[in-house]
């Protein structure tokens, strides 16, 4: 194999690995647009400064992209910038070398972000950009050595490097000058993008148990397949419609936000902890940063921090902890997590109630405690033992099973990795769905949005789809929720209700978005 062929094989593998890495990162559309914009900016920068040999801002832009956005986006910005700019300068055997060299500058930026932090100073950033220019030159010297040198000796490589040294130094000096001029500004702009838009979700509930893991789970899956919730048929159009309806509900919630950043029971009503917390959770379930929703420049952050310090009852502690996690705020704020853990009784429950113990587990998991932590396992063990003979759960653990309490318990048991008890609870929910596709608080009864939303989240948590219509039923659960949605996006509690508090729309939004509790927003 010749030097030329070997070098192009290595380059090809490097490019394939880089682009595959980026593809597997599943970047959202906004990140894709930003990467494309940065690549175009880097290419234009190279073209604009073409009259000055080897002085160009391209390397700085690529390195900063990697520093702010990560290794995979940084690599792609560099590689695409080289390919795009060579449409003007001319393609040739040097193109893949430039693509890899600038891609490596993006990786260097990501490494710099990990080692020195993204809030790097102006001078260190300029030094790094200068070093990246020299590294780029070294790679391009290697390209000349591999492609055009005859016997490929070290002396030849040294001669090539000495010949290109003035150009490489000019590149490095230019990089330093550009970084000193605009580097910190570009870093801040990209980091602002990441904190506001490019959020990352960490699902805390494990994946559904594998077939055969437990007889009850296998039996449940078989029942679901027979009933029509399993394979077969196209559910994608309904899922896409649900996302659209969820966006409409989120738009309505944003329209009724108060000037203090919170929400009340209705438009114009004073903000309170219940409405604000559930609205934050609902908006976050859609994949949006709830703190980016503002009225007159104010978000719900200050209110959430205030609620964290003031919460005292178990219900307030749990709800606020879920809202803090959904907003990407530490559960330690205001000593909330400490008080939440102290609220657990000696038997593992929270106030001896199924409902509060379910939400206690969800709040603890959302706050960062693992499913194997002692506090979570004690609560889950107590909760699983309170299942009724029918598999459902009641508020106190001693009464008639209800939809809301069973749905919350299923989500908590999935999050705590208690699949058998969760499967029995889900089976109870399936057996008590109304013919209109919804659930009543206490079956038999009229369906409502809250009970249906919680049931949908529970079924999704255990691995089922809420777009399925059971035989003989007029609607699927998702279709039932959509039937309650008004033209402005608001969701009514039931068909007969005229006044519905804001939190009902927020809870329905989480179900339409297809996200069971708990989850937390992890900021870059």
TrEMBL record:
Give me the segments passing through the membrane.
30-49, 61-84, 96-113, 125-149, 169-191, 212-232
Per UniProt, the keywords (alphabetical) are: Membrane, Repeat, Transmembrane, Transmembrane helix
Question: Per the database record, which ranges form the Prenyltransferase alpha-alpha toroid domain?
Answer: 244-303, 426-492
User: Pfam families this protein is in?
Assistant: ECF-ribofla_trS, Prenyltrans
Instruction: Cite a single GO MF annotation.
Output: catalytic activity
UniProt keyword Repeat present: yes
Mind telling me what this protein is named?
Unannotated protein
């Amino acid at each position: 194999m010749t030097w030329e062929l070997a070098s192009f094989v290595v380059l090809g593998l490097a490019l394939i690995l880089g682009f595959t890495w980026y593809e597997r990162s599943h970047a959202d559309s906004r990140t894709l647009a930003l990467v494309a914009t940065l690549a175009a900016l880097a290419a234009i920068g190279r073209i604009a400064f073409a009259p000055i040999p080897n002085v160009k801002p391209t390397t700085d832009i690529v390195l900063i992209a990697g520093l702010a956005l990560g290794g995979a986006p940084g690599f792609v910005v560099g590689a695409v910038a080289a390919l795009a700019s060579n449409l003007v300068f001319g393609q040739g055997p040097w193109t893949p070398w430039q693509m890899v060299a600038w891609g490596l500058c993006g990786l260097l930026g990501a490494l710099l972000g990990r080692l020195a932090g993204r809030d790097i100073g102006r001078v260190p950033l300029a030094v790094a950009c200068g070093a990246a220019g020299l590294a780029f030159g070294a790679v391009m010297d290697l390209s000349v050595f591999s492609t055009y040198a005859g016997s490929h000796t070290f002396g030849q490589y040294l001669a090539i490097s000495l010949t290109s040294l003035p150009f490489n130094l000019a590149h490095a000096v230019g990089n330093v000058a550009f970084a000193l001029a605009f580097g910190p500004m570009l870093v801040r702009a990209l980091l602002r993008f990441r904190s506001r838009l490019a959020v990352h979700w960490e699902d805390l509930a494990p994946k559904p148990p594998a077939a055969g893991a437990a007889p009850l789970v296998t039996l449940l899956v078989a029942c679901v397949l027979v009933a029509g919730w399993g394979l077969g048929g196209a559910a994608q159009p309904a899922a896409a419609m649900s996302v659209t309806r969820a966006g409409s509900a989120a738009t309505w919630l944003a329209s009724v936000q108060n000037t203090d950043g919170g929400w009340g029971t209705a438009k114009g009503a004073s903000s309170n902890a219940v409405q604000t917390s559930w609205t934050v959770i609902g908006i976050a379930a859609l994949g949006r940063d709830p703190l980016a929703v503002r009225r007159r420049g104010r978000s719900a952050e200050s209110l959430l921090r205030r609620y964290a310090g003031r919460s005292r009852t178990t219900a307030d502690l749990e709800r606020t902890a879920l809202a803090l996690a959904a907003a990407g705020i530490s559960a330690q704020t205001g000593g909330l997590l400490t008080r939440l853990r102290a609220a657990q009784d000696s038997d593992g429950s929270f106030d001896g109630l199924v409902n509060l113990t379910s939400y206690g587990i969800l709040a603890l998991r959302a706050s960062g405690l693992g499913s194997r932590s002692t506090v979570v396992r004690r609560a889950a063990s107590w909760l699983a033992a309170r299942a009724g003979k029918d598999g459902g759960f009641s508020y106190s653990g001693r009464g008639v099973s209800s939809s809301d309490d069973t749905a919350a318990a299923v989500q908590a048991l999935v999050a705590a990795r208690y699949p058998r008890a969760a499967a029995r609870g889900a089976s109870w929910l399936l057996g008590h769905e109304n013919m209109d596709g919804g659930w009543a608080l206490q079956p038999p009864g009229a369906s409502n949005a809250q009970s249906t939303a919680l049931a949908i989240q529970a079924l999704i948590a255990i691995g089922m789809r809420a777009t399925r219509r059971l035989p003989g039923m007029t609607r699927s659960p998702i279709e039932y929720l959509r039937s309650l949605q008004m033209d402005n996006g608001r969701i009514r509690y039931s068909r007969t209700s005229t006044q519905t508090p804001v939190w009902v729309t927020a809870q329905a939004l989480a179900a339409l978005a297809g996200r069971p509790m708990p989850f937390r927003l992890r900021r870059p």
